[in-house]
Each structure stands twice: as structure tokens, then as C-alpha cells.
Amino acid sequence: MRAVVVGAGIGGLVAARALGRAGVEVVVLEAHTYPGGLAGSFLHRGHRLDAGATLLSGFAPEAPLGLVARALGMRFPVEPLPEGFPLMEVLLPRGRVVRPVGREREQEAQRDFFGPRVLPFWRWQAERAERLKALAPRLPWPPEGGELPQLLALLPELLPLLPDLFLKGVHRAPQDPHFLRFLDAQLLIASQTEAARTYALYAAMALDLPHLGPALVPGGVGRVAEALAEGLEVRYKARAERLLLKGGRAIGVEVAYGGRRRGEREVVEADLFVLNIPPEPLLGLSPRVPRDAWGAFAVHGVLPLPVPPPYYRQNALEKPFAFLSLRPEGEKTVFSLSLHTPLSLWEGLSREDYLAQKARWGRLALRLGEALLPGLGEAEFLLFATPLTYRRFAGRAWVGGYPQTHPFRFPRVRLLANVYRVGEGVFPGQSVPAAALSGLRAARLALESLGLGPEEM
Predict the structure, then answer these.
(1) What does each C-alpha distance from 176 to 55, 115, 116, 268, 326 come to in angstroms?
(2) Claim: this prediction has a pTM higher than 0.70
(3) Do 189 and 107 share a domain, yes or no?
């Protein structure tokens, strides 16, 4: 029995390891030279820079990555952050509010900054997040063939959540303009849309990030992907171009190699396939970009000095909100600064206009970043990435999966009888923990279809 996993992102790597543990021969095809995709790290001038994701959480024992580690029998190379650690600082017109690790600590910080009327919101958020955390690894959404009984069995646990199914996050919040701005800024990171459009249940889970087991990753986020890839057969510089179909099933994938095998082509045959990239190009279809999707503009660099925590900072003084990630590297600090940008701004530009637009957004990003950390523009070097950069790198123009406006937006995991999709586009949504859970689910579905599904998955 053989499986091919296309794309060495987190979801694909988790699926590959899970399939391998069940005795399936697995080959992973990755177009780049390192694993992780937008949760990977790349080298530049001797420094490891994060391609996309920078803040990792979910390593608590019952949180998604803790569950994944247990299911795969491995440990992730991370340093858990203790309760009270100042995880994130958000700059608002009224000042700076810190999000510390630990529910009680955060509620104290929120009460001190916004006043006691925000406390009922945080109590609601904590209660909903705990219920969702218990459900997420077991919840088949949308249900695939054979999963409906599993969904019905969970109804007693789902019923208390129904009042929030069609509400937005803003409906549970006090109507304080400063607090709503704070929620907008935080949810844009996690759900790719504001509080007025994020459905309430997703908002509750997304806002729980400081309490799911946040951790620092020495050497960058890519270390997690590298740990997942260890021991797997991963073929790098192997670009999958087309799925070969027969009788409603995939029988192989056409691969074009680069690097030392440049110019070589091969059809890799298998019994099942897991796609950690947008499936449309492999099926000869045009890419489908959500109409409300965002692009990303990012700045990468290295500062020649150590910077104390908080290592994650957000400028919510004006839009676009800027998110700054810092990582200690000896006596230096690696940073990533990112902004949401409308995709339409980058379409149809001449080379000259594109470079001018890139320079304008670079100046804007650094101005917003300087409010979070003065001297940011004096980095040893600066790299700029636009939506076109991500289109070339990741094979898609937009970032962060689908804006989480309602719970019925997730596509099906099973594309064909033996083809499954994983990653931030499927349930339970974007983020590294969500992508990891999607990998477990796809592996479980595939193994069940083969009569091999282990109970713990």
C-alpha cells in the first residue's frame, strides 16, 4: 500500500507520519528545498527567517499540537512559555495592552485596561473555547461519507454551542470602540476578518491562543516542520503538476524535478493521495480565490541587538494593522513584520508600477513597525514579500485560508475516492494547530477506507 503526499506543509507532514505509523509506504513531494511551506524557515545571509507563521501555540497536552504529538509518538522541539509570560502587546489609541499567558492573568490585564465590563465576554470566551477544544479533534466537519453517525453522537456536546452558531464575535462583546478595535486586530490575525464578520464560535477559539500552550521555537517555526519530516521520504524540488485519473480515482501524479534532477519528469503512482496544496491546478481547473480573501505584505530582517519580550506586537492604531514577530538569535533579533493588503492592488501592474507599489508598502510597513519597535528600519538587511511573492512561493495568492465568516465555508476533505486535502483551507481552519489536526483527520479517513484506521486517530 502506497500513499503520495503532495506538499510538505504541516498538514501534509502530519498525514504522512500518521499513514506511515499505520504501515503505509509514504512518499512526500515538496516543490521547495525545505519543509513547512508557510510554516517553514528559510536561510538568508546565514540567518533562519520564517516564511509565514511565526507565533505557535497549541502545545498543551489536550491542545491540538499536544494531541498530534501523542498520536504520532513524537516530541516537538519547542520551549513552552510559563504562565504570566507577556506573550503579545497590542498598541491601541488608548495605550498598550499585553496578553499574558494564563486565563486569570489575561482577565486581570483586560480588566485593568478596558474596565470590568469586558469580563463577561472573556468568561464566555473561556467557556466556549474549552468546549471547542474538547470537540475539535473529534468533530467531523463537514461530515464525509461514514462520518454522520460520529457527528450525531456528538450532538449532546454540540447543543450548548448552538446559540452562538449564527452570531458574530462582535455580538458577544461590549460595545466599547477601543475593545472592538482590539478584537478586530486580534481576529484579523487568526480568522482573516474582523469581529463583525467572524462567527462567534471561531472567535472564541481564535482568541484562546495564549492559553493553548504557546511556545518559543529556537531556530524558527520551521523546526516543527523539520521534526515532522524527520524519517520520512521527502523528495525536495519535486513539483507535482497533474493528477492522473481513471474511473473516478487518482492513479498517479506527474512530477517535474529541479535541483540535481532538473529536467527529469516522472509519474509517481500510488493507492491514495493527500494534497497539501490547492487542488485545482492538479485537476486542470482554474484557481478559486475567495472574493473576500486577503493578500500579505511582509518585511523580514535582522536587528544587531537583543530585544526583550513581548516577542509578538501588533499596531492597531490605524489600518492596515501591523503584526511584528521577534525571535532572539544570540545577541541579535530576527523579525518578521506583516500587513494584510487587498489582492486587487497587486493585479495587472507593470514591472515599474509593481516595484513602486512594493516600495510604498515597504515604507508603510516600516512606519507602522517603528511604533512597535523604534529602530526597526536600521536592520542589517530588509527583505520584502508581496502577494505575488506568495503566489510564486506557495502556489496561491491569498493567505490564511478562508475568512471565517460562517461554519459552512469549509470544503470537503475527500476530493475523490482516494484523494484527500489537508491544510488551512479545511476544518478546523487556519493556523498550524488546525492544519495539523486536518492531517490527522485525512489520515484517519484514508486508513478507514482501507480498513486500517487506528482507534486513537
Answers:
(1) 27, 10, 12, 57, 30
(2) yes
(3) yes
